[in-house]
Design brief:
This protein is α+β, with helices and mostly antiparallel strands. 19% of the residues lie in helices and 39% in strands. It has 2 helices and 15 strands. The chain has helices at residues 2-36, 208-214, and strands at residues 65-71, 74-79, 84-89, 96-99, 106-109, 114-119, 124-129, 134-140, 145-151, 154-159, 163-167, 173-178, 187-191, 194-198, 203-207. The strands form 4 sheets. A 4-stranded antiparallel β-sheet has the order 1-2-3-4, with no helix packed on it. It starts with a helix and ends with a helix. Mean pLDDT is 79; it is low at 1-37 and 210-217.
């Protein structure tokens, strides 16, 4: 009788131990999954209009400014409808243009004289010297290229709204970062270890340092 009791309690102990291990494993897996999932916050954002610029145009032109950057005291705009970059001083004066063969969509600064421009429907990135107003190189992408950002000698480019290609300035893809499947990402910016993505209504923040620790490069 005693021997049967010992076997019973040993069996009961093993069942409890198994259930405890299973629960801990489940929680660990859930924690890991949550750590890999970008967190979305409904943060209140307040803005104040500090200055308004009126970009002059011809009477027959319809401007479509899709992106802009500030380089020192210079502003650079992408004019999608008119296939050009618009460059002016920060007060809106001294306006001049760089005509392009493609419709420019998004822009990022590479250095004080150079910008990279994504031309989405053409799957093309243009590297442009704004001082000489010349295209120094052209990069072809594997899909439609949208948001673009430059950080730590690499370009971060949204491809087809669903992934980010990290590439050097020759177009060589170094790695790929997947994006949330429920969003179509249009624009991005990289700030050190943070990657901020934007669709029409949502901001999504990814931590690049965390991504690097969990993905083999």
């Amino acid at each position: 009788m005693l021997q049967h009791s010992i076997h019973f309690f040993r069996y009961l102990f093993n069942v409890i131990l198994f259930l405890s291990i299973s629960e801990n494993t489940r929680k660990a897996e859930e924690s890991f999954t949550q750590a890999q999932t970008p967190v979305k916050y409904n943060l209140p954002i307040f803005v104040t209009l500090r200055k308004q610029l009126n970009i002059t145009k011809r009477s027959n032109e319809i401007l479509s400014i899709t992106s802009c950057i500030k380089q020192g005291n210079t502003l650079v705009f992408t004019d999608y409808n008119n296939n050009r970059l618009i460059i002016c001083n920060s007060d809106g004066t001294d306006i001049h243009h760089i005509p392009l063969s493609y419709k420019p969509r998004y822009i990022t600064e590479i250095d004080s004289n150079t910008v990279a421009v994504s031309c989405s429907i053409y799957s093309t990135i243009l590297i442009i010297n704004i001082s000489t107003r010349s295209i120094t190189s052209t990069i072809k992408t594997s899909g439609y290229c949208y948001g673009i950002s430059y950080n730590d000698n690499n370009l971060y480019v949204v491809i087809d709204g669903s992934i980010i290609h990290v590439m050097d300035l020759t177009g060589k893809v170094i790695r790929t970062i997947p994006l949330p499947s429920d969003a179509f990402i249009r624009d991005i910016t990289v700030d050190r270890y943070r990657l901020v993505c934007m669709d029409y209504i949502t901001l999504i923040i990814l931590l690049l340092a965390r991504w690097k620790t969990n993905v083999e490069i």
